[in-house]
C-alpha cells in the first residue's frame, strides 16, 4: 500500500524537523543528508535546484530535490529534469513513500513539459538501483561521477 504524500516548501518553521530526517545505517553512502542537500542547492545554482520536504499527514517523512528545467548544454549538469536527491526517513521506509514521491514528481515534470526524468545511483546490490528499475527507470549507458545514469520516459 502506498502512503499518500504532499510536497511542502521548506521554511524556517519546518527546516529543523526536515533536516533531522535520516536514512537507515549503511544507506548514508547512497544519499546525502537534507542539510548537505540544501548546502549543495545553495552552492550549485547552475543545477537549477528545486526541492521540497515530503510529508505524510502532518509529519515530515522525506526530502526530494531535482534539477528543474536546466537549459540544454549546461556543462556538468544532467537534465533538463534530474532527480538529484530522494531521501525517505528510516522510520518511514517500506511504506511506498519513495514510489509516491516519484509519482508526484513525474506529474509535476510532465505538467512543466518534461519528457523524461533522469537520475543516477552508485552501483551495488544494496543501493537504490533495484528501486529505480522497479519503478520504470532504465540505464542510459552513461556513467556520471562514477554513478549509473538511468532514465524514466514520461
TrEMBL record:
Pfam assignment, any one: Acetyltransf_1
Record-linked SUPFAM superfamilies: Acyl-CoA N-acyltransferases (Nat)
Ranges where the N-acetyltransferase domain occurs: 5-154
InterPro entries xrefs: Acyl_CoA_acyltransferase, GNAT_dom, Sper_AcTfrase_N
GO terms assigned for molecular function: acyltransferase activity, transferring groups other than amino-acyl groups
Coiled coil: none
Protein name listed in UniProt: GNAT family N-acetyltransferase
Species of the source: Amycolatopsis mongoliensis
Amino acid at each position: 500500500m502506498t502512503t499518500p504524500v504532499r510536497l511542502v516548501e521548506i521554511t524556517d518553521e519546518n527546516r529543523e524537523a526536515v533536516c533531522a530526517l535520516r536514512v537507515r545505517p549503511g544507506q548514508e553512502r547512497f544519499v546525502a543528508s537534507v542539510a548537505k542537500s540544501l548546502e549543495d542547492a545553495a552552492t550549485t545554482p547552475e543545477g537549477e535546484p528545486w526541492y521540497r520536504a515530503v510529508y505524510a499527514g502532518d509529519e515530515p517523512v522525506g526530502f526530494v530535490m531535482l534539477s528543474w528545467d536546466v537549459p540544454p548544454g549546461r556543462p556538468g549538469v544532467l537534465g533538463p529534469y534530474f532527480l538529484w536527491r530522494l531521501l525517505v526517513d528510516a522510520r518511514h521506509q517500506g511504506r511506498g513513500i519513495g514510489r509516491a514521491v516519484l509519482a508526484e514528481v513525474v506529474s509535476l515534470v510532465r505538467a512543466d513539459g518534461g519528457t523524461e526524468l533522469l537520475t543516477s545511483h552508485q552501483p551495488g546490490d544494496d543501493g537504490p538501483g533495484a528501486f529505480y528499475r522497479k519503478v520504470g527507470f532504465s540505464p542510459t549507458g552513461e556513467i556520471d561521477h562514477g554513478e549509473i545514469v538511468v532514465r524514466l520516459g514520461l
